[in-house]
Write a structure and sequence with these properties.
It is built from 4 helices and 6 strands, in the order ααβββαβββα. α3 links the parallel β3 and β4. It has a 6-stranded mixed sheet with strand order 1-2-3-4-6-5, sandwiched between helices. By secondary structure, the protein is α/β, with parallel strands linked by helices.
Length: about 160
């Protein structure tokens, strides 16, 4: 069910992103770009309530990056991104088309010992890479988007487009 990668048919991540845009919007993502990076982004709100009402609210930003320059882009994110007010965590999942041996660990940066938030960056290949549990929910979304794209392209090739 996975997309077969190869020299004869090198897929464009932007093409996949455009054709599965409806899928990403269903989960609260919108298209996003920063310098050479392109992908989707969402902000998740966490509320802490008590009998007296809301006592805390913070956010988590999720980025799924389809276009990037690999490890150099990850290092650029860690060196240039700054803390965002009320955002505790920024997760960046960089999608790659070849499994990265040795790059499956998470790159991490905290701001003011974590009191102002942190950034986690990880790489993921939809074809068989294990992903750290911090990114498992995003990896499932990426895998499902690729399955949808695969079904759409197989229908187009068979001429069953509606």
């Amino acid at each position: 069910m996975y997309i077969k990668w190869g020299v004869e048919r090198r897929l464009s991540f932007i093409e996949i992103l455009e054709k599965t845009k409806f899928f990403w919007e269903e989960y609260g993502f919108s298209t996003w770009q920063w310098q050479e990076l392109e992908g989707v982004y969402r902000r998740v709100t966490f509320k802490k309530d008590s009998l007296m009402g809301e006592i805390a609210r913070y956010y988590a930003d999720d980025y799924v990056v389809f276009t990037h320059n690999g490890l150099s882009s990850a290092q650029k994110i860690l060196s240039q991104w700054r803390p965002i007010p009320d955002v505790m965590t920024q997760r960046v999942l960089m999608v790659v088309n070849d499994p990265l041996h040795g790059h499956q660990k998470i790159l991490h940066k905290s701001f003011l010992f974590g009191f102002r938030g942190w950034i986690d960056v990880s790489f993921y290949c939809p074809e068989g890479d294990d992903v750290h549990r911090k990114f498992s929910d995003l990896a499932v979304l990426v895998r499902n988007a690729f399955k949808i794209y695969s079904k759409m392209t197989s229908q187009v090739e068979r001429g069953n487009v509606q």
